[in-house]
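Example 3.2
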Amino acid sequence: MIEELTEEQKEKMPQYVETWTQIGLSCEPSDFEKCKKFAKMAYAAADLPEPSKFVLVDSPKSAIKELSEVLPNVRDTSIFTEMMYGNHDAGWLSFYDFMINEVGVTGCENIEGLIGIAKNCGWWSAYDDIVVFQHRPKEIHLDDNGEIHNEEGPAILYRDGYAVWGISGKRVTEQIIMAPETMTIKQISSETDLDLRSIMIDRFGWSNYLEQSNSTCIDSRDNIIENTKEALYKSEFGNRMVVSCPTGRVFALGVPDSIGSCSEAAAWLGSEEDSEVSVNVIART
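Structure, written as tokens:
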């Protein structure tokens, strides 16, 4: 029984982390022939008959279209949720890849097909008579925290044009990214997800939002300690504390309706820093 890795083995771990991170983020086209080879290995390991048909498509959307034609009684949502992640399974497959190759652990033969697929394919779907492989995304954009993020276009773009839009890890719509000026106050106010509403207001523009939502300024001041200008507004959402920094960065924090001044808002926010009460960040830029 292995109780501890050798120093040589430990030194190789960062190499596997880097290799599998690149596998997980790869935007290279999938290798159809290798995908078929390793899928057949996976079926054999599961003691299942080999499917008669293998297909390679450009995106999850294309995969759903392909499979819905041969699985007419299966809902699109079920097809989507049953997809396997291919190269996006890099997190857990990297562990076994390391243990097999560097530690010599045995008994993992049944997942070698999955490891091979992950190195050569995006998402994939496996059924009795058909396997549908997907090309890896054409583009992936992440922020410094590794979250999907692109303020100028799709965060994830596939070869057939199918796209995923995101800001700081939050899924958004194409409108929010490409045409934020077309949003309406009613559209923003009806959004119940506070994080998404924050992004919508930020993209729409605070000055536009305050003007079009008929927000009224309750109080304002120069905060000489933080070197900021502060204003407390009341909108259809309640009171908001909007802080404009010298750098042009703007952020807003939600405060209770009972707050009537910037100083009261600052005191309330300060008192809640170490408490279990959640402070509602309305927007920040």
